[in-house]
Amino acid sequence: MSTPRFLRLAACTALTGLALAVPASFGQVTTEAQLKAAYLVNFLKYVEWPVQRPALTICLFGRDSLGPSLASYEGRPIGGRELKIRKVNSPEQLADCHELFIADTEEARFGAVLRWVENQPILTVSDAEGFTRDGGAIALVRSDGRLQFDVNADALARAGLKPSSQMMRLARQVIGSVR
User: Is 75 left (phi over 0), alpha (psi -120 to 50) or beta?
Assistant: First the structure.
């Protein structure tokens, strides 16, 4: 196995470990929805926002398939801040969102929802494979039988967010330029 391929495999394994390395008090990750929820929580640990707030908020837009899996994380400290989870349906409800998960069932509305968060420090994530090509920041994708993620570095930069180099290395694919 070539060294770059080995490093890539090791990085993918490490990210899966990050998603699964949830403290026992958070429960076991056993379903795909639970794994996606673990990724959403872990992304919060690897992104720096321009403004610190007392709580970190994951907002859910569209069909709420992850709410039940995220419920066990609500109220837990993430980087010293309390994690909150809530559903949103309009741009007026996004004021305190750090991360906005847009379900793949809302693909027809990606453009409109991404305009809602334009130039705001909100990490956009979806489980639709083409989400990063549509301007979203992170797409959770199923590849080689595993859940992985793609990153749109330009979308992160537009939002004023700074991803850790570790997160960028673990991405399956990075679109745009890392600044």
Answer: left
Amino acid in the structure at residue 58: I
CA-atom Rg of the chain in angstroms:
15
Q: Which residue has the tokens 């290395």?
A: 169
pTM passes above 0.85: no
* Residue range 104-138, pLDDT digits in tens: 999 999 999 999 999 899 999 999 989 999 999 99
Per the listing, tokens 């379903």 go with: 31
**Correct CATH for 3-175 of 3.20.20.70, 3.40.50.2300, 3.90.780.10, 3.40.1180.10:** 3.40.50.2300
Every domain of the chain and the residues it spans: 3-175
**Count of alpha carbons within 13 Å of 99, Cβ hemisphere only?**
26
3-state class of 13 per DSSP? helix
Could you report the per-residue pLDDT of 15-72, keeping only the tens digit for each?
444 443 333 334 555 899 999 999 999 999 999 999 888 899 999 998 878 999 999 9
Q: Can you read off the two tokens belonging to residue 53?
A: 């707030």
